[in-house]
């Protein structure tokens, strides 16, 4: 029944939609509403439904104006019977009809049978006649006459919709299409000649909430002063008065039927449903009556969220009703309604709305319960909203529940707030949990221990977190209490936090045991289980056990809930593990996809070194050393120093040292590695390479021999050290050891499908050594990238740029440097820009840091520092 198609073709000059209301002069032509109506108009029956004042009748009339059709428009009155409706429609279709003889439906049937072409019948305010016979008559007429189309306009879900047979083609125009957006509000005001500024428009849009009747009435009043420029302060009293008047007009009928208190209680809730109202009122019949009255009076309209239908009050009406809470008794009743509603929503699984009601009621224990039961989903979908709610919780209530403090600190760091403030919040969470832990029972103590471990680790105190994790693990082994589902969930959370802390300390084997314990607990939540699987896969990938890593990633992605969590921080370790495995296997497309996914997530202060490490390593594998080195430098500059665990920061520094070796900066590489050289496996290979390329082959072999002789090395560090051992032995002339080391390296590489460590040693030197020792290296070096010809070189500065760089080390401004050098400040600015471009930075601190790394500046001695101070 599209107005632009067949209906217009059959309209004769003296035919039209008889009985249609006249379209007002200043009606906004709304393209979105017209498109929705046109899409629905292909059906035999179109239902247009929405609350009072949204402009349903006006929208349908304006839509039909675009291509007038033949038919009838009948507005139903409350005192009419079904026969009266059909009699009126029949006379509109055939004005020459005489006495209908008490059979109006038969007369209408005859008129429709004799019609040439499509016929449209619009029944406006159809909900006023709640009679099942109307539905039966419409169904019979539509099924009998293919050319008949019926449009039903009303506020409520009518008898027709509930009783219509499955043979009918029925389309519903959703109520939300009638809400005015900001542009339509502006167009409606402008059409009446109203002048306004942006602040005034924002006020109207926010206050009236897209309610068409309110905007229309406001435009009518403002048009009485056509030459006035309306500002926000001038409009505010007028808008407030209109809100009150319209709410009174719409809600008077409902208040007379159910009472003002019941309607105000409904306004406290985000939406209305039979279950929610019954939980608030405690009376099934009263809840059903309130729902029916709200719908019929037009105070609210039905909307669909997901697969659930909710009745939502008109925003303006709801806000005005909430402002009527004037005395303490009403406020107490509002809190009771909010708490009851929050508990019902929590039981129904609607965590977001439950969170909002708990915060509005200032019931902080209930807020903590909502967040703890659904914090993974809430922080996944509504992190900013959760953070805003937590920032309103009083400090005393936060200290009473350290888990909330820990969550506040974590979200503050995630969302880019001040790191110092986030660290202070996490430290406060640890202190509060430690105090409460003294008097807590077994389950409560376990929960608080997990909070303390997470807070310490996120605040950068990884050593303290690991020590506490080991003590907690010992106490968990001594638990002698009945295993309940709640205790099992607490155990799963504790095992995860213990495993993460041990992983960040570098104790991979201990961490894997904890992640395995999480997998054996059926009560573990989906995000906890996925995080444990993903981090275990990442541990294996970093160690070089790629087969185990791939199997764990497949297990994580095979989980039925993976699609719900794959783009969250809970799945980040799995993506990183898959990226490392793909890069080692030479699957650059998969590695790039995984890196892009990981980079799009809000990586925490715990995981950013691994994201940066993998991204830079891929650039290095492509022979783009300059870009890879920039990734490392930018990551270090973007995150606070000392926050990442010493282990993961050492992993990133080891890769950074390899970039320095590419540019022949062996001394800088050794200097960068010095704080991390303590016998750990992840840095040993880089340290040995730095010694090798610094010309200390004997020292490099000593380091490699010591680590290899320790035994039980993971595949990746073992391969790196065997390669250094082979090259160093070749340089000192010990070909027997070089041959043995190469054979062991080939064996480890083949057993675990490792390729990356081969690329970190010059391929030409390895091929030369292979010819001398007789070891076949062609399979592993055939597709090795030419990393050592990547073009990563030390920036070359002009003499004047070097002088300006030395001056930047001081605290003087550009003008001070210009006076010292005796040149203009524009000259200094130009040279500083050139310096920044060559060093790949944009700030003075970053320029100095890179200059020290490239040895373009000598380190400041203690005497120089004392003189400068």
SSE diagram, text form:
Blueprint: H1 6-9, E1 17-18, H2 31-40, E2 45-49, H3 56-65, E3 71-75, H4 82-93, H5 104-113, E4 119-124, H6 132-144, E5 148-154, H7 159-163, E6 170-173, H8 182-191, E7 195-196, H9 198-208, H10 212-222, E8 229-230, H11 232-258, H12 260-267, H13 274-281, H14 284-296, E9 300-305, E10 308-313, H15 315-322, H16 328-348, H17 351-360, H18 364-381, H19 383-390, H20 395-400, H21 402-414, H22 419-437, H23 442-458, H24 462-477, H25 485-505, H26 508-519, H27 526-543, H28 546-557, H29 562-565, H30 572-585, H31 588-599, H32 608-621, H33 625-638, H34 646-662, H35 666-673, H36 681-693, H37 697-710, H38 715-731, H39 735-752, H40 756-759, H41 763-773, H42 778-781, H43 799-808, H44 814-821, H45 825-839, H46 844-853, H47 862-868
Quick overview:
By secondary structure, the protein is mainly alpha-helical.
Question: How would you characterize the overall build of this protein?
Answer:
The chain has 869 residues and is mainly alpha-helical. Helix content is 65%, strand content 5%. It is built from 47 helices and ten strands. Strand 9 (300-305) and strand 10 form a beta hairpin. Helix 11 crosses helix 14 (284-296). It is elongated and about 120 Å long. The N and C termini lie far apart (85 Å). Mean pLDDT is 82; it is low at 1-15 and 861-869.
């Amino acid at each position: 029944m599209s107005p632009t198609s067949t209906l217009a073709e059959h309209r004769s000059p003296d035919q039209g939609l008889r009985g249609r209301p006249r379209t007002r002069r200043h009606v906004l032509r709304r393209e979105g509403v017209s498109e929705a109506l046109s899409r629905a108009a292909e059906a035999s029956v179109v239902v247009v439904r929405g609350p009072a004042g949204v402009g349903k009748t006006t929208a349908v009339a304006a839509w039909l104006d675009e291509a007038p059709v033949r038919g009838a428009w009948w507005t139903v009155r409350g005192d009419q019977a079904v026969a009266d409706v059909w009699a009126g429609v029949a006379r509109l279709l055939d004005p020459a009809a005489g006495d209908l003889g008490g059979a109006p439906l038969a007369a209408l049937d005859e008129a429709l049978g004799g019609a040439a072409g499509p016929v449209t019948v619009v029944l406006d305010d159809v909900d006023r006649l709640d009679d099942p016979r109307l539905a039966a008559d419409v169904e019979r007429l539509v099924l009998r006459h293919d050319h008949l189309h019926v449009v039903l306009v009303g506020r409520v879900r009518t008898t027709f919709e509930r009783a219509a047979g499955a043979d009918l083609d029925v389309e519903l125009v959703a109520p939300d299409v009638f809400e005015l957006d900001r542009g339509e509000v502006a167009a409606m005001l402008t059409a009446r000649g109203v002048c306004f500024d942006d602040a005034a428009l924002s006020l109207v849009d926010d206050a009236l909430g897209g309610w068409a009747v309110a905007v229309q009435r406001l435009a009518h009043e403002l048009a009485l002063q056509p030459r006035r420029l309306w500002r926000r302060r001038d409009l505010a009293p007028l808008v407030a008065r209109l809100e009150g008047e319209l709410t009174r007009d719409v809600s008077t009928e409902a208040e007379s039927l159910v009472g003002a208190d019941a309607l105000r209680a409904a306004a406290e809730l985000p939406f209305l449903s039979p279950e929610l109202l019954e939980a608030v009122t405690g009376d099934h019949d009263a809840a059903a009556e309130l729902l029916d009255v709200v719908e019929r009076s037009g105070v609210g309209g039905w909307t669909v969220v997901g697969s659930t239908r909710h009745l939502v009050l008109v925003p303006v009406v709801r806000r005005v009703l909430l402002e009527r809470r004037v005395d303490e008794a009403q406020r107490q009743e509002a809190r009771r309604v909010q708490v009851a509603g929050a508990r019902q929503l929590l039981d129904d699984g609607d965590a977001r709305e439950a969170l909002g009601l708990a915060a509005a009621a200032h019931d902080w224990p209930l807020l903590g319960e909502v967040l703890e039961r659904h914090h993974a989903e809430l922080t996944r979908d509504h992190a900013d909203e959760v953070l805003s709610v937590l920032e309103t919780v009083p400090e005393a209530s936060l200290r009473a529940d350290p888990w909330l403090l820990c969550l506040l600190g974590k979200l503050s760091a995630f969302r880019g707030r001040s790191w110092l403030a986030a660290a202070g919040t996490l430290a406060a969470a640890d202190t509060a949990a430690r105090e409460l832990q003294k008097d807590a029972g077994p389950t409560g103590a376990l929960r608080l221990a997990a909070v303390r471990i997470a807070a310490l680790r996120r605040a950068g105190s990884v050593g303290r977190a690991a020590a506490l994790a080991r003590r907690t693990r010992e106490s968990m082994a001594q638990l002698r209490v009945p295993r309940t589902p709640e205790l099992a969930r607490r155990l799963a959370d504790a095992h995860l936090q213990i495993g993460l802390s041990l992983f960040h300390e570098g104790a991979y084997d201990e961490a894997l045991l904890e992640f395995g314990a999480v997998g054996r607990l059926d009560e573990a939540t989906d995000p906890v289980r996925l995080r444990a699987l993903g981090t275990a896969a990442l541990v294996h990938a970093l160690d070089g056990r790629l087969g185990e890593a791939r199997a764990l990633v497949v297990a994580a992605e095979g989980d039925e809930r993976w699609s719900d969590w794959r783009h969250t921080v809970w799945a980040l370790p799995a993506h990183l593990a898959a990226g490392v495995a793909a890069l080692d296997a030479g699957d650059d497309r998969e590695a790039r996809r995984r890196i892009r996914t990981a980079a799009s997530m809000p990586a925490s202060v715990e995981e950013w070194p691994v994201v940066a490490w993998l991204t830079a390593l891929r650039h290095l594998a492509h022979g783009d050393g300059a870009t890879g080195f920039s990734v490392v430098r930018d990551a270090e500059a973007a995150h606070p120093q000392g926050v990442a665990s010493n282990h993961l920061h050492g992993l990133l520094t080891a890769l950074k040292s390899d970039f320095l070796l590419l540019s022949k900066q062996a001394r800088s590489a050794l200097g960068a590695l010095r704080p991390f050289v303590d016998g750990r496996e992840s840095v040993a290979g880089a340290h040995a390479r730095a010694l090798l390329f610094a010309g200390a082959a004997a020292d490099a072999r000593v380091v490699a021999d010591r680590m290899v002789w320790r035994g039980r090395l993971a595949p990746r560090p073992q391969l790196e050290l065997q390669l250094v051992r082979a090259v160093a032995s070749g340089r000192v002339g010990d070909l027997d050891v070089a041959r043995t080391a190469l054979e062991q390296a080939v064996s480890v590489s083949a057993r675990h499908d490792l390729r990356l460590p081969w690329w970190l040693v010059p391929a030409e030197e390895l091929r030369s050594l292979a010819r001398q020792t007789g070891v076949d290296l062609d399979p592993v070096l055939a597709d090795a990238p030419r990393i050592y010809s990547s073009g990563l070189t030390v920036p070359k500065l002009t003499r004047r740029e070097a002088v300006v760089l030395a001056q930047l080390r001081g605290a003087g401004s550009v003008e001070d440097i210009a006076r010292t050098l005796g040149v203009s400040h524009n000259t200094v600015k130009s040279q500083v820009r050139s310096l920044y471009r060559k060093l790949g930075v944009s700030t003075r601190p970053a320029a100095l840091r890179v200059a020290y790394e490239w040895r373009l500046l000598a380190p400041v001695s203690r005497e120089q520092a004392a003189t400068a101070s």
